[in-house]
Amino acid sequence: MGVKKEILTAGTGPKPVPGQKVTVHCTGFGKNGDLSQKFWSTKDPGQKPFAFQIGQGKVIKGWDEGVLGMQLGEVARLQVIFKLLVSFLRG
């Protein structure tokens, strides 16, 4: 698995299945290589929740892997392995 997942709040609903559209709030950390520095959030002014079709390779692999295992209502911290992010960005 290319992602580390820490559950912050357990969910109670169903888990998504590949191909399903999911909508999530997310916050990106790692500005200038500092994991304590936020660089973006769907909760920032003017932003909205992020929607994508899960398991289709449309987002970084760590998101597909991490969100597939989540339940509705769950809040989790996903730490994506750097090489997965780089390979996604390079295409």
From TrEMBL:
<feature type="domain" description="PPIase FKBP-type">
    <location>
        <begin position="19"/>
        <end position="80"/>
    </location>
</feature>
<dbReference type="Pfam" id="PF00254">
    <property type="entry name" value="FKBP_C"/>
</dbReference>
<dbReference type="InterPro" id="IPR001179">
    <property type="entry name" value="PPIase_FKBP_dom"/>
</dbReference>
<dbReference type="GO" id="GO:0005737">
    <property type="term" value="C:cytoplasm"/>
</dbReference>
<protein>
    <recommendedName>
        <fullName>peptidylprolyl isomerase</fullName>
        <ecNumber>5.2.1.8</ecNumber>
    </recommendedName>
</protein>
<dbReference type="InterPro" id="IPR050689">
    <property type="entry name" value="FKBP-type_PPIase"/>
</dbReference>
<keyword id="KW-0697">Rotamase</keyword>
<keyword id="KW-0413">Isomerase</keyword>
<dbReference type="InterPro" id="IPR046357">
    <property type="entry name" value="PPIase_dom_sf"/>
</dbReference>
<dbReference type="GO" id="GO:0003755">
    <property type="term" value="F:peptidyl-prolyl cis-trans isomerase activity"/>
</dbReference>
